[in-house]
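Appendix B, Record 12. Input sequence as logged:
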Amino acid sequence: MVPSLPIQIKVLDPRLLHEFGGLPMPATIGAGAVDVVACALYPTLPNGKPDIAGRRELREPVAVSGPQATYVGLGFALAGPPGWAAVIIPRSGLGSARGLVLANGQGFVDIADYRGEVIAALWNRTDEPVDVGQGERIAQMFLVQTPTPEWTLVDELPPSVRAAGGFGSTG
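Logged structural output:
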């Protein structure tokens, strides 16, 4: 049996519970990630970051056009134990069928200390606008353990079979 992990979730958009299917949950018993849905839209500031003060509930579809990121709030904030993080990744069908991926490849949320809304930065890699509607599944989220490194300064690293072979060195 897979152990559970106590994570606190604060619902910021009540539609998440009442209209959009409830809290993020795995779709199947063996799933390692949960689908997350579009709840809010954040305008983009001139520096390319989301305008947190400008958040508005998503009530009608929004057209996502590349190459600028479109910031979509997921309707919740998280708190978890130190040494854990949430990772936001694209949904494979959304990327392959409609061209929507995450602008930063994947998002990393430090749940031990970040308390704001979890936001997905969507990017459209096609030439045509793609509509995203309220409550639409737009990404996936999973939890990862993030140990704090204890660095040991050495003059030489232990030998390995691969050694310094880099890009393409294994075939």
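The helical segments are 15-18, 92-98.
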